[in-house]
């Protein structure tokens, strides 16, 4: 068990909030983290059929088992339980009593907003950051191995083969959750849809094209993508909104939280295949973007990220909004440092100069040499997790 970057935020929240809700994908380490941080709390999971039946049939008696509070896993399986928990918290709002976890973001968020608004601190535990993976005795050394392995804790904790584990993960959780959330009858079509989404990572999300390629309707494509988001497998990165008189692209970009899962779904099995794969660049871009998303989630931040693209072809992979303004970030999988790598982001900077002021450029690339060029920085991929995004 390594120390997770989110741990200090949970410790802080437990001093002031009567309950903490920890959401994230299955197998991201939520239960392990809660057991380590709250060892004196009883623990139960609503994933177990008998426990779930008890909580549904007699919620009062179920919660009375835990007079001092508890860790309740997968609470989205019994959303009505939160209404009863609301009364208990209001009657005795002692801090840190109730720790709730869930792996379905939308249904969990809806239940919280209806029952526990203002009573729980909500955090997201996503797969490991690069910095967290380096705390294990063995971790991927090369860029290709890092992208292929992904970042689920069980792979590193057990020294498991990433391909075998991810294959089981897709069968045990991804396909099951898709069927459970949408009552999908055609498993082959849903499998094809997930693979097609993986092939579109780091690309503009065109629902019409996605639906046409999969042979489903556009509303179905939107619904199924919502399931991938709800299950913390993929997310939409919004386009930057500004008051510039530019024709900006409004479609979001599609990204996955884990590049190991993307590689598995695309049939990439070995580092040498990834080195020459036509989607190497988008996969690397997704890795960079997801690393920063995870970094900000570990600080309890869920916004402030977008991308820029206009109708004239000017684009930047990620716009990071901070107290001092925008930072423009580009991801280039090449291992060769070159001044031309900054061309796209510097073009965007000129467009944003009037409304956003100076925008430093950070370019993350697949090489090993760090360079500073005025306000712009060339950052080796290995050093991405050392920076405060």
Give a summary of the structure in a few sentences.
The chain is built from 17 helices and 14 strands.
Q: Major sheet: size, sense and barrel closure?
A: 6 strands, mixed
Distance between the termini: 25 Å
The third-level CATH topology of the domain at 7-124 is Rossmann fold
> Which percent range describes the beta-strand content?
15-25%
Tell me, briefly, the overall form. Answer: globular
- Low-confidence segments, ≥5 residues, pLDDT <50? none
**By helix and strand content, what is the structural category?**
alpha/beta
CA radius of gyration is: 22 Å
Strand order of the largest sheet: 9-10-11-12-14-13
Structure overview:
The protein starts with 6 loop residues before the first helix and ends in a 9-residue tail after the last strand. The mean pLDDT is 92. The protein is built from 17 helices and 14 strands. The strands form 3 sheets. It has a 6-stranded mixed beta sheet, sandwiched between helices. It has a 5-stranded parallel beta sheet with strand order 2-3-4-1-5, with helices on both faces. Strand 9 and strand 10 form a beta hairpin. The protein has helices spanning 7-14, 30-37, 49-57, 59-64, 81-91, 105-115, 130-133, 143-149, 153-157, 162-182, 187-198, 207-214, 218-230, 259-265, 271-275, 280-297, 343-356; strands at residues 19-23, 43-45, 70-73, 98-102, 120-124, 203-204, 234-237, 253-256, 305-309, 315-322, 325-332, 361-365, 371-373, 376-380. It has a domain at 7-124: 3-Layer(aba) Sandwich (Rossmann fold), CATH 3.40.50.300. With 389 residues, the protein is α/β, with parallel strands linked by helices.
């Amino acid at each position: 068990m390594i120390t997770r970057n989110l741990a200090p935020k949970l410790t802080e929240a437990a001093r002031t909030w009567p309950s903490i809700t920890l959401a994230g994908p299955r197998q991201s380490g939520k239960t392990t983290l809660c057991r380590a941080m709250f060892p004196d709390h009883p623990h139960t999971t609503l994933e177990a059929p008998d426990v779930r039946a008890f909580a549904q049939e007699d919620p009062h008696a179920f919660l009375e088992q835990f007079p001092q509070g508890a860790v309740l896993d997968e609470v989205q399986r019994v959303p009505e339980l939160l209404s009863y928990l609301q009364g208990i918290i209001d009657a005795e709002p002692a801090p840190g009593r109730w720790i709730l976890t869930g792996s379905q973001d939308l249904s969990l968020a809806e239940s919280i907003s209806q029952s526990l608004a203002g009573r729980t601190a909500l955090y997201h535990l996503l797969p490991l950051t690069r910095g967290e993976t380096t705390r294990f005795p063995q971790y991927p050394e090369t860029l290709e191995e890092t992208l292929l392995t992904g970042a689920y804790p069980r792979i590193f904790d057990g020294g498991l083969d990433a391909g075998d584990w991810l294959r089981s993960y897709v069968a045990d959780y991804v396909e099951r959750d898709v069927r459970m959330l949408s009552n999908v009858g055609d498993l082959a079509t849903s499998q094809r849809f997930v693979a097609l989404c993986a092939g579109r990572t780091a690309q503009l999300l065109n629902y019409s094209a996605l639906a046409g390629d999969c042979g489903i309707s556009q509303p179905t494509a939107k619904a199924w993508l919502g399931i991938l988001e709800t299950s913390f497998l993929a997310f939409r990165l919004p386009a930057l909104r500004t008051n510039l008189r530019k024709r900006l692209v409004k479609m979001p970009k599609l990204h996955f939280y884990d590049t190991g899962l993307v590689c598995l779904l695309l049939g990439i099995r070995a580092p040498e295949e990834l080195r020459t794969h036509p989607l190497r660049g988008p996969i690397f871009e997704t890795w960079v973007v997801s690393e920063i998303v995870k970094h900000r989630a570990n600080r309890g931040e869920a916004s402030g990220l977008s991308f820029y693209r206009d109708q004239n072809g000017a684009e930047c992979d990620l716009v990071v909004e901070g107290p001092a303004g925008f930072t423009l970030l580009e991801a280039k999988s090449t291992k060769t440092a070159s001044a031309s790598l900054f061309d796209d982001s510097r073009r965007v900077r000129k467009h944003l100069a009037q409304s956003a002021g100076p925008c430093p450029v950070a370019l993350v690339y697949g090489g090993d040499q760090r360079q500073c060029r005025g306000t712009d920085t060339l950052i080796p991929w290995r050093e991405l997790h050392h920076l405060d995004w």
